[in-house]
Write a structure and sequence with these properties.
Length: 296
């Protein structure tokens, strides 16, 4: 039952569509052979201040931009060392000023596979080394070249290495690093533009038991190229980098078996060409009966 909790937590720290990052799919805890978790989360994120390059600014013609999303998340342990993860969000973005159209649509479907390459037990601490690869792609052709949008509309492929140490007391620490390759997109001007690739690093410390989970997360995104917000500059080409701090708590309540209640918050404290956004997430996760897995 404990493993069913951990992967549900990952949904709470899934990033906003404006960052187009998928690190939330992959945490440091394996599902377990034949174990499947489904989760449904709701997130709301808003900002009125944003960085043009690295200069903070506001715009009365935009006001406050708010993005809301509902996400379905499924994770399943194919074997004891391999997991498959899928997420599908529906998002809506709107502004409090100006005449910007509200964008509401199914967003980008994401899928990943995670493999545990090595697991060591050292004096009451388990150290796991994992590799993962994932893909994210838009489901519909939503507007991507606007300040009020739900994403870049780019297909991306990523690879990540995750190292996690968990003490028998429940205290754990994780570090993850990966590279996100993003394909060019077509904008409303009728031409293709490049979307910057990303290097992502995530650090997480926390406590996990059978009933309770809490963590603190530092998330860093560094764009590998790109432009600065300005007149005539396509929004998908902008170099979006950020530092995000946040945390998640989850409670495997005692009244309904295998049902977990999740809550999380995160805020961007520094960045380039992104909003100074604060995000709140709430959700439920449920552990399905084991289907056995593939005994390899």
């Amino acid at each position: 039952m404990i493993h069913r909790l951990y992967l549900a937590i990952a949904t709470c720290i899934a990033l906003a569509a404006t960052t187009a990052a998928s690190q939330g799919l992959v945490s440091g805890f394996m599902q377990g052979e034949g174990r499947t978790t489904i989760a449904l989360t709701y997130s709301t994120e808003s900002f009125s201040e944003y960085w043009v390059g690295q200069q903070p600014t506001t715009n009365s013609g935009l006001g406050t931009i708010t993005t809301q999303s509902a996400s379905l998340f499924v994770a399943s342990g194919i074997t004891s060392f391999a997991d498959v993860l899928v997420a599908l969000p529906y998002a809506s973005a709107t502004s409090s000023a100006g005449y910007w159209e509200t964008i509401s649509s199914i967003q980008d479907v994401s899928a990943a596979i995670r493999l545990r390459a090595l697991s060591l037990d050292v004096e009451g601490t388990t150290v796991d080394i994992m590799g993962s690869t994932g893909i994210s792609a838009p489901v519909v052709n939503y507007v991507n070249n606007a300040p009020v949008t739900i994403g870049h509309g780019a297909t991306s492929i990523d690879g990540r290495i995750t190292i996690q140490a968990k003490h028998q007391s429940g205290v754990f620490a994780m570090v993850q690093s990966g590279y996100v390759h993003r394909n060019p997109v077509t904008i409303d001007w009728g031409r293709d533009v490049n979307v910057p690739h990303l290097v992502e690093t995530v650090g997480r410390i926390g406590f996990a038991s059978e009933r309770f989970y809490a963590d603190y997360v530092v998330h860093n995104v560094v764009a590998q190229s790109g432009t600065t917000i300005g007149p005539g500059v396509p929004f998908p080409t902008n170099s979006q980098s950020l530092v995000r701090l946040g945390g998640t708590v989850a409670w495997n309540q005692p009244w309904i078996d295998h049902l977990t209640i999740i809550g999380g918050a995160a805020t961007i404290v520094d960045g380039s060409n992104v909003g100074r956004a604060t995000r709140l997430t709430f959700g439920l996760a449920y552990g399905l009966p084991s289907w056995g897995g593939l005994s390899l």
